[in-house]
Structures are given as structure tokens and as C-alpha cells.
Amino acid sequence: MTAPALRLTGTARVGGRVLFGPLDLAVPGGEWCCLLGPSGAGKSSLLHLLAGTSGAVTLDGSARAGDGAPLAGRVALMAQTDLLLPWLDLCDNIRIGARLRGTRPSRAQAEALLDRLGLAGMGARKPGALSGGQRQRVALARTLLEDRPVVLLDEPFSALDVATRLAVQDMAAHALRGRTVLHVTHDPAEAARLGDSILLLAGGQIRAVAPPPDAPPRAPDATATLSATGHLTRLLLEAA
Amino acid sequence: MTALRLFLPVMLALALWQGAVTLLAMPPFILPDPLRVAGTLWTSRALLADHAMVTLTEVLAGLALGAGLGWISAVGLALSPGAARLLRPLLVFSQAVPVFALAPILTLWFGYGIGSKIAMTLLIIYFPVTSAFFDALMRPPAGWEAMARVMGGSPARILWHIRIPAALPGFLSGLRLAAVYAPIGAVLGEWVGASRGLGYLMLLANGRAKTDLMFAALLVLAVLTLALHRAVDRGCLALEARRLR
Ligand SMILES: Nc1ncnc2c1ncn2[C@@H]1O[C@H](COP(=O)(O)OP(=O)(O)OP(=O)(O)O)[C@@H](O)[C@H]1O
Ligand SMILES: [Mg+2]
Fold first, then answer.
1. Fold observed for domain A6-74+148-239
2. Choosing a second label site near B77 at 20 to 30 A (CA), which of A122, B34, B44, B241?
3. What are the residue boundaries of the ABC transporter domain, all occurrences included (chain A) (predicted)?
4. Residues of B157-180 as b/e, b for ≥16 C-beta within 10 angstroms?
5. What is the rounded distance in angstroms from the CA atom of residue A211 to the CA atom of residue B20?
6. Any ligand 1 atom below 6 A from CB of A91
7. How far apart, in whole angstroms, are the C-alpha atoms of residue A138 and residue A127?
8. Does residue A217 have a cis bond before it (omega within 30 degrees)?
9. pLDDT digit string (tens) for A105-158?
10. Domain limits, chain A
11. Among partner residues B152, B154, B161, which is closest to A73 by beta-carbon distance?
12. What is the pTM of this model?
């Protein structure tokens, strides 16, 4: 599996109003790219444009893979809401993609994934019996099990406490190594920790910000990470 | 608690009834008093139970068939948008035909026995079940379907794994409605032509000026309808709660 690059160019509109652009966003194949930006800037819309689920948002331009082949079938999307199906237990929620494609991965695989996300032994529970942070981890597990070369994550760790967040970030970084990841986040520290590249979407434009020099996932308290966090925070404050 | 909540309205209704009989000085063959009806209820209990069983059978069979057919129709319509566009107006139009006007024809087609009553019940509940379920199928909560498409699900599998389970509450609310309508269908069928059932008994009693028996049959019918509604309601609630727990 070689992970293709992602490229989105053009202008996005919603209801005739320009949401962002004209811009040119590129994520190199196999890299983890973090996308920051104020609320309402169009980050989620951008992910949906790449996933082909944009609905009311239209793109005058193109959203495609760098290798020219269609993105459909190569993308996994973790949306901003968890979209768990309340009538399925956690294992079946995680495996819903396979079911929708008419295959059936083992329950053991799903259980193992839950285990690695700190949800050991909860596979038979229904989503209604979970906390917000637990639901978010199940949604992440579902996205990881899709096993796609391109992964779009919309605020995947936002509901987690600090310790869990760091652990789950590490787990995701390892699980998705070598894939092309576009990761939307509100948290500058998260972007400083995880991004091979960091982009800022503000005022309808994309701007690249230099990540710390070492390879992610970086120590959250390393000087380079902290100074990148500070720099990103300042940029976000200026953009607001 | 429930008993108390029921007790007061029932007592009020009985008091009004008795008051009307006393004040208006109604002869028993026009409006019998509650005690007299209670007496008939007791003395004719075997007869009433007999006919109630027939009506109940018709109602349950009609309910099962109507729910099943409604389920299949709604899913079929949801599977093919073309068919839905074509058939939906037809369904609505069929509802504009007063169904009870069809009762004599149904008796002609399905005979004097239980068949025509089941058909009548089915006809009355088919539309509420179909349209409640179909509407729910066509309005899945945003996000799920998009997610399923990104995952590569075919329309049929998305329907089966996402849209149908998501629309189950809609189907169940159609079923609750159907439980109220179903006895009406059965009794209508019996009025047009039958030799058994509560509807038949009411007509018979009325014809022979046995108004107390007619009222007794009416009461049994009302209790049957309420019990059915309650049972279906409870069943639906339990099902909904269990599948989310
Ligand atoms: N279906 C829609 N109809 C109308 N407007 C929409 C629609 N979807 C998004 N928008 C608008 O587009 C803008 C961008 O929305 P989007 O969800 O992409 O923002 P975001 O950057 O992800 O914000 P947040 O950080 O709060 O999640 C918002 O102003 C929103 O109101
Ligand atoms: Mg968003």
C-alpha cells in the first residue's frame, strides 16, 4: 500500500458565499499533516470535500489524489461527530465498514483494537453506555479498522483527558505511520506534537507553518514542541 | 398509581351515564343504566367471550399481515426511488377512498367468514404503517449515510445496515397507530356481513332491541382496543429500550 498525496485547489462555496479560497493545499503522500484554524474557517468542509461527502459545500476546483486515481475507496473519514450507531454494540460499530462492504472481520480484531485504546472488555456495550471520550475512541477505532491509505481526522482527540489524549495520539501515530493523514485540530500543542507538516486555514487562505525538526510523535514537553506550540498559538490569536 | 389514574375518569363516566339515564328518564331499550349493562356483561360472558375471540383473531391477523406488508412495501419503495415517485401518490390516493365503502366488495371477494375482516383490517392499517416507515427510511439522520458511502457500502447494504435500523422508531410509531385502527377495521367488516364477532353481535343485539347486550359488546370492544393499544405500546417501548442497551 503506497499512500497517495492529497491535493485540493480552488474555491469552496456554501450557499453562494465563498467559504475559502482560491487556495492550493497539498499533503505529501505518507505524511501526517495537521490543519489548524478558527472555528467556522471551513476545516471540516475541506475534509468532506476530499472525502466526497460535502453536501451543501461546493468546490470550484478539484480535490483529488496526487497519483491521479480516484480517492473513492481509499479514504477513511473520522467526522467531527462520532456517528456511532446506537443499536450496535461497540465491536459491531467498529466493524460496520466491513459489513457494509459485505465482508466480516473477526470480532477478536475489533476487541484487540478496543483494548489498545483503553476500552478493554467493553466490546459488548452499546454506545449509549459510554462517556464522550469513550465514544470518540470508538469512532477512532472504527476509522483505524478501515485500513485505508488516506485518513482524514476531524478533531479526533478533542474529548480526551490529557493523559489519555497523549496515549491515544501515540497509538494513532504508530497505527497510521506511512499513510497520508490530514488531521484537523483546534489544539496547537497537538499539531506541534504530531504534524510532519502544519497548515493554518484562516481568512479563506492556507498558510504553512514550520513544524519542530524532530520526527513525530514528539514529547509534549520538549523545548522545540513547546516553542512551536507557542508560535502556533500566537498565529491563531492573530487570525481570530 | 395507574389504577388510581384510571379509577377517577371511569367513575366520572359512569356517574354521567347514570345521571343521563335518571335525568332524561330513558327507557332501558334506548339507554340502559350501567348496572343493567354490568349484569348483562356477567350473564352473557360466555357469549361475549366467544365473539370477542373471533374479533381478536381478525384484529391480530390483520395487524400482523398489515405490518408485514407495510414493512415490505416501505422497504421496496425506499430501494427504488423511481417506484416511490410512481406509487407514493397512488398510496395517498388509495387513502382518499373511504375504506369502509370497500367492505361489501371485500365480503364479495373474500367471503362471509374471517377472510374479508382480515382484509378490511389490513387495508385500514396498511397505509399508516407504510407511510410512517417509508418517511423514516427517507430521512436518515445526517452523517450516517455519508459515512457509509465513504466506507464503500452499496445502496442495498446501506439500506439494510443503516437506514432500516435507523427508521425502526418510525415503523413502530406506525404500528402503534395501527393497533388503534385495527379493531375498527375488523368491526366494520363484521357489520357488513358476518355470523360471528363483536360487530356482528352488536348489530344482532341492536336489531332485537337488546340494547344492554349491545352496550356490553361495545364495552368489551373498547377494553379490547385499549388492551391491544397498551400491549403494542409496551412492546414497542421495550423493544426500543432493549436494542439501545
Ligand atoms: N450544510 C451547510 N449549510 C450552510 N452552511 C454550512 C454548511 N456546512 C457548513 N456551513 C458553514 O460553513 C462554515 C464552515 O463550516 P465548517 O464546519 O467547515 O467549519 P470548521 O472550520 O470545521 O469549524 P469548527 O472548528 O467549529 O468545527 C461555517 O460558517 C458553517 O456555518
Ligand atoms: Mg469542524
1. Rossmann fold (3.40.50)
2. B241
3. 1-228
4. bbbbbbbbbbbbebbbbbbbbbbb
5. 88
6. no
7. 9
8. yes
9. 789 999 999 999 999 999 999 999 999 999 999 999 999 999 999 999 999 999
10. 6-74+148-239, 84-146
11. B152
12. 0.89
